[in-house]
Amino acid sequence: MATLWLLGSQCSFRQPWFEEIDKKKDHILLIEARSRSTWQQYHKQKLVLVFSIMRHFKAELEEAGFSVDYRQGDSFEEELQKHINQYKAKEILIHQPSDHRMERQIHSWKNKQKDVDIRMQEEGGFLIGRPEWEDLLPDNQKWQMDKLYRKFRTRFDVLLTNEGKPLGGKWSLDAENRKPPKKGLDFPAPAWPDQTTITKEVIADVEQHYTENYGSIDSFRYPVTADQAEAFLEDFIKHRLPTFGDYQDAMIPKDPFMSHSMLSASINMNLLDPLDVIRRAEEAYEDGHAPLNAVEGFIRQILGWREYIRGIYLRKMPEYRNVNELDHHRDLPDFFWTGETKMHCMQDSIGSVIEHGYSHHIQRLMVIGNFSVLAGFSPQQVSDWFNEMYIDALDWVVLPNVLGMALYADGGLMSTKPYVSSGNYIHKMSRYCGDCEYSVKDKYGETACPFHSLYWDFLERQRSRFEENPRMKVMFKHLDNRSEEQVQQQKETVDLVFDRLKKGEL
What whole-number distance in Å separates Cα of residue 369 and Cα of residue 244? Predict the structure, then answer.
């Protein structure tokens, strides 16, 4: 008799151990661990998502004829031992998680066991197996996502001609996906599933047991079953995929969803199979429903970036967690949890996270991440915030994306230059600046956009690192072309910004 222990992100019949489970004699174990050390300060909606998926999957397992032991307790280890004692389990089947902290806990528990046989294999939900990454990302070469993306496109025959060439003649159509939001632009709202009775019960439990956690809970609407996620995918492909390419980098106040799929949480939590999602998007292009730039851009996020960042995480942990190449140590301000700031772009982007546990990737990278780099916030505090506050965040997702892409804390492993800009980029790609208390037209003084002075300050303090970077030389020429008066005005303005930041008045 064996027990298959499933984690919250592994609740899928596609997990590999299901091929060996005998439902007549084996058991499925699900543990809803509730300790503060496990969940830290996670967004309430993230807790609802995990617990609701687990409870719904319990019902699906039982309906399919499996024997399920569903436990709620303080820790995984305590509940595992109780299960072993009660069921006289002699064999525990575990899917090895990508999350390093959870993997370490499992191995620590495994090493203590004497009378139980522990069998492990890699968890499902990824297209590239764990053992491959040592060869795909060798120590003696510069790592590049684009090369791997081409390799993966070829391996899985995605968007290729009969001759094996990329449709449209290019592997990436990213250059076509940078349109700013034109006046009057809007998008169909996502077809959120209705809250089930189980989800309502989970919401009540989270409100009762996690009262001090951040985030709004009333607006929770994310898929919590495979069927709900399938319907959500179909709605995206039908209504929002066609415009995803053109406007994936655009930002509109009060609309963090726009044409974005909102499927990352469902894929990361194993409600959807990533290759199936890719094939469905590919079909939309073949049927003439969605243009190639939209479909390729969407597929690149899954087949390219999602697999690549997991590979980096697997290759670089645990040391990667502590990277801080730019030597940034400033504490996060309170408005990261309250959204109370006069900067409209930060207010709206963080407000969306508080309300929905979500903002789209440009808000993450070029608003929140950009500001965090320019202000010199501790990369570990920033990555912890992303991990705790985003509905689709898992450790393997967050660390390369935030520490590497957004913050350049890894010294260039994920990007050739920091993703930093003045307020001009935000003005170009959004509608934030027109309603902001700070003026994007003002470079200096009381009303100046804080991104301007912070940007020049960043270039000054990081000059030795980046002035020879080919992609940044032009900006350093602009830096050196300022007059003495402009230099002094910029210094006074950035001092004012940091003083307001310290006082909570920014």
Answer: 22
